[in-house]
DNA sequence: AACTGCCATACTGTTTACAATATATGCAGT
DNA sequence: ACTGCATATATTGTAAACAGTATGGCAGTT
C-alpha cells in the first residue's frame, strides 16, 4: 500500500549514502575476554547447564562494567550458549532432550562434511598439523581433566580447519559447544565428551586419504557420543511438573 | 560479601544455588519486531549490503528506543547479518568473496542433509504442506518481486522444516540469509536468488521419495546459484588500498 | 583551482541513576 | 509446626545525560 508519491522520493531499495564500511578493524565481540572466558568455562564444564550468570558477579569477576557483561551475555544468548530470562537473568543454556538430539544430528552433518573436505584438501602442512596434534593427544596427561577436554575438542576444531571453510569452522565450533552442553545436561557424571580412542583412528584415516573410512569413523564417533547420553527424566523437574499438569488438564487460570 | 549471619549455618552452599531457570516464557530476541523487520528487509533485498543502519533513524522508524535498537543490532551482528564498526555504527553485512563461497558450500551441506532427512521423514502432512507450497509458487504473481523472493525462500525453509530438526532449520535460515547477502553483494543486478524452475523438480522428487535424485537436484540448484555470482573486482575499493599498503609495508603508526 | 588543516556537527559509546520485577525473609494466623 | 501474606533486599531492565570519535563543510594556502 504505497501512497502515490509524485515527487522523486525514493521508496525503492535503500541506497542513500554510499558509505565505505570496510577497511576498519572489525574486531568482533567474539574476541572479547568475557565471551571467551565463559565459552572456555562451558566447554571445560566448569560451568554447568543451568548455572546462574549474575551480571554483578561477572562484572566484578572480570573487572569490567555491567554493560560490557550485558553485551557479552547477549552475544552468548544469540549463540544459544546462555539463556536469558526476562527479569531473571542469564543462565548457562540447558538444551531439552529433543534439542540435544537435534544438535548431535546437526553436528554429525557438519563434521562429516568437514572430514570430506579435509581429505580432499589435505596437503603437507595439513598433514603436519594433524600429526602434531595426534602426538599431543597421545602424550597428554590424562589426569588433567580440563586440559584433556580442551585437547579432544581441539582435534575436531583442527579437522574443521583442514576443511578450509571458515563458515563450516564456525558452525563446528558452535555445535561443539552446544554438544558439550547437551552432554553436560544428560551425561552420566564424569565421563569425557569424546571417547579417547577414536581420534587416532580418524586421524590416521584422514592421513591415509581414505575418505569413506574417515567419514564412517567420524560418524561412528559422534554417534557413540550420542548414545552415551540418556533422557534423564529428572533433569528438568519443572518441565516434568508442567507435563503432569498437562496430563491432568489443570490450568492455573481456570477461567481462561 | 555476605555479612556475618551467626544464626542458621546453612551458609555453606557449596553448590551455588540450585536455581530453576526453566518453565519461564523464554521469548527470544529473535521474535523482536526490529530484528524481524531488518531480517525480512535484507532477505527481500530492500536493504543492500553496506547500507548504514543508524540507531536514531531505526529508533524513530520503529517507534522505539535506541537501547532496544542497539540490542537488536547486536543480535544481528552475532548472526553476521550486520557488521558493527566501532564508533562508525552498524551496516548491512557485506561478505568477502571467499566468505561468500564458504557460505554457499556450507549451505549445500546443510540443505542436502535437510533433503536427506526430509525424504526419510516424509508423511501425510508433510506431503500436503509441500504440495500446498508448490501450488502457491506455481500460481504466484511474478511481478511482485518482493513476494517472489519471500516465496522462493519459503520453499527452502519448508524443506528444512520437513527434516524435523530444529537446529538444522535454524542453520538453514541463517545460511539462507547470508546467501542472500552474498548474492546481493556479487550478483549481476536484478536476478532472483533462486532460479524459478528448480523448485518444482526438487519438490516432485521429494514427494516421490527419490532420495538420491532429490539430493542431486538440490545440490545442483544451489551450485547454480553459486555460479551466478562473480568476484566483482571493484567491490571493496578500500580493501584494495589496504592491500597496496600492505605490499609496501607501511603502517600508520610508524613508531609503534 | 586543488589541497591541507581546522572547526562544527552528528553519531556512537559509556556512565550514571532510577524504576520494575523477582527472590528471600520475617511475621501472623490457623 | 506449617501455610499464607507482607515487607525487605537484590538483581535486572530502562532512561537520560555525557563524553569520545568520525564525518562534512569551510576557510586558508600554494
Structure in words:
Two copies of one chain form a homodimer. Chain A has helices at residues 33-43, 55-62, 66-78, 97-121, 124-139, 145-162, 166-186, 198-207, 211-227, 237-248, and strands spanning 52-53, 82-85, 89-92. Chain A has 256 residues and is mainly α. A three-stranded antiparallel sheet of chain A has the order 1-3-2. The radius of gyration of chain A is 23 Å and the shape is globular. The relative contact order of chain A is 0.11. Residues 1-19 and 243-256 of chain A have low confidence and may be disordered. Chains A and B meet through helix 3, helix 4, helix 7 and helix 10 of A and helix 3, helix 4, helix 7 and helix 10 of B. The first copy, chain A, binds a DNA duplex (30 and 30 nucleotides) through helix 3.
